[in-house]
From TrEMBL:
Sequence ranges assigned to domain EAL in this UniProt record: 405-660
Full protein name: Phytochrome-like protein cph2
Boundaries of every GGDEF domain copy: 264-396
InterPro entries: Cyclic-di-GMP_PDE-like, EAL_dom, EAL_sf, GGDEF_dom, Nucleotide_cyclase, Rev_trsase/Diguanyl_cyclase
Alphabetical keyword list: Membrane, Transmembrane, Transmembrane helix
SUPFAM superfamilies, sorted: EAL domain-like, Nucleotide cyclase
Listed Pfam families: EAL (PF00563), GGDEF (PF00990)
TM segment ranges: 20-41, 199-225
Amino acid sequence: MIREDKRIKENNILRAEPGIVIAVLAVLILLIAAVTIQSALGLKTAVDRTTKAYVSDVAAQLALDIDDRLSLYQENNIIGVLEGTGNKESMQRLIQPVSFDGQGLTCIADTEGNVVISPTDLAPFMRLDDIFKEDSEETTVRNIKRMQENMKEGKNGVFSFVAVDGRELILSYNILKSYDWVLLTLVPADLISYETDRYVIQTFAIVAGTILLFLFFLLILLFIYRNNRRRLEYIAFVDAVTGGMNNAAFCLKLRETLKNARRNEYTVAVINIRNFKMINESFGTHEGDRTLHYCMQILRKNVKEGEIAARGNADDFFLCLKEGNRNIVAARLQEIVREINSFNENLENPYHLSFRQGAYLIDEPDLDSTIIQDRVMTACMNQQEFGENSCVFYDICFTQKMKQEHELNAMFRGALENGDFKVYFQPKVSLEDEKTAGAEALVRWQHPEEGMISPGDFIPLFEKNGNICRLDCYVFEEVCRTIDRWRREGRKLFPVSVNLSRQHFKRNDFLNQFADVAAKYRIPEGLLELELTESIFFDDNSIAMVRESINRMHELGFKCSLDDFGSGFSSLGLLKEFDVDTIKLDRRFFLDMSKPKAEDVVECLIDLAGRLKVKTVAEGIETQEQIDFLKQIHCDMVQGFFYSRPLRAEEFEEWADRRG
C-alpha cells in the first residue's frame, strides 16, 4: 500500500507542480509591479514636496523684493513707506516673477482676499474664491480656511489644489510687511514634476503592459500545459491498442475504488488469452491488435457502473467487479468468454479463443494494487490444476507454495555444495532366484534445519526451473563414486539405474558429461542404466532426437530403461521406435489386481517385452499376491516395499549381503 500511495502522491505532485510554478511567477510579477508602482508614487510625492518648497522659496524672495521697493528700513525695521503714482503695467511688472519660465502668476491681495493688484485683467484673480471648485475636496477646503486664518495672523503658507478648469495648481501666500497686503503666487503643479509625472505614467504603462503580456503568456502556458497534460495522461493511462484503460490507470482507479470498500465487496479478475502468439504468427500483428481491441470492447460492455475494465500486459485483461459471490463472478466471466467467441456463429471455419481465468475476492481492501494483481495472476497460473476455461480463485496456499518453492530454490546451491542431497538405493529383486539384481538410485534431501524434504516438493520444482539437470549429474556422480568404492572393496557389483530428466535433451551433447564422469571412476560397461520417462517424447522431432540419444547411450556403455511404462497413451508405440533394454511397468497397474482384465493387460505387456528381448521390472510391489502373479507370468524383476524401502548406501550393502 505504501508503494501505491507513493505513486498516487507523485502523480498529484506532477499535476500540481505546473500550477504552483505559474502561481509563484504570478505572485513575483505582482510583487515587482507593486514595488515599482510604490516607488513611482513615492517619487511623485517627493517631487510634489520639492515643487511646493521651491514655489514657496521663490514667492518668499519675491515678497522681500517688493517690500524692499515699497518700504523704508532702519536697522531692519520699517520706518515708512513710499507713496507715488504709476501706471498699472509698471506694478504688474513689479510683482511678476522671473522664475517659473513665465508660467507663474502673482497678485497682491488684502487680508480679506480681495485682489489689489493682479498681473492680468483675467477674471480668476478678481476674486480668490472663484479659482476653487465649489465641490472641492475636504483637504482643499481645509487648506483654504487655514490660508485665510494665516493671512489674518500674518503667516506664510503653500498648498496644492485642483482649479475649476481641472488643472492642479500650487498656491503660495506670503505676507508683505507694508500696507498689510499678501502676495499670492499661483504656479502649475507640474512645473517641476512634468518629467516625473511622465515617468510615472510611463512606469504605469510599462507595468500594465508587462502584466498584460505576462497574462497573455500565462494563458498560452496554461493552454500548452493543459494540452500536454491531456496528451501525457492519454499516453500514461490509455492503452494504445484497445483505446481503453491501461494497467497504470487500472491500478490508480482500483486504489480509489477500494478506498472505502468493505471486506469481500469487490473481486479483481484476469482473463488471459491462451496461445495469443499463435494469432500473431498465423494472421499477423494487425489481426492480433484487432483481437485485443475486440476483447476490450466486450469487457467494457459487460462492466457495470463503479466497475473497471483494463488491459494489463500483453494478452491479459483485468476486471474489478463489484461482486462478492464466487459463483456470480465465475458465471459473469463465462458469459464474457461466451460473448467474445460469439463472432464464430456465422463463420464457416470458426476460431474459438481459449482463456485462462483467475480471480481474487478482495478480503484485504488496503492491499497494494500490485499485490492484488499478483494474487490474481497466481490464481490464473494454477488453472491447469482445475481444468480449462474454469475460473480459479486465489487461495493462500498458492502463495505458501510459491514461498516454499522460492525457499527451496534459494537453498538448492548450498545444499548441493554441502552434500545435503543423499542418494538412496531401492533394490531390484530377480523373481527367478529372489536375489539382488540391481537397484534404482533415488535422491533424498536431508536439510540440516528443515529436516527431510519430500521429493514431491522439490523434484517437480527443479524440473520447471532446470535445476534438475545439476541434481541428476550430482546423483549420477554419487552413484559412480559408490560403485567405484564397491569395486575397490571387492564387493559384488550391481547395475544401478539413474533417472534422467527431459531437460537434458535440450542439449545434444549432454551425454558427454555423464560419459566423462563414468570414465573418471572407471565404471565397467553395463553397470549404469539411464532411466527415461514417457514425458520426454512430446513430438516427432523429440522422438528422432531421443532415438539418437539412446543409440549414443549404448555406444558409451550405458543401458537404457523406460520408466513408468504404460502411464501414457503411446507406450506401445515407443517400444517399436526405441531400442531400450528395460521397461518398468507403472505402479498403477498393480493397485487393483482383483479384476482379470488388469492381470491380462500386465501379462500381455510382459509377454510383448519378452518377444522384443526387453527386460521387465514391476514397480510398487507390496504384497505376496502380486509377487506370485508376477512370477507366474515370468516378470524379470520387482521393485517395491515388499522387499525393501529405499536404503542408504551402507544399508543397501548390508541388505544385499544378507540376500546374496
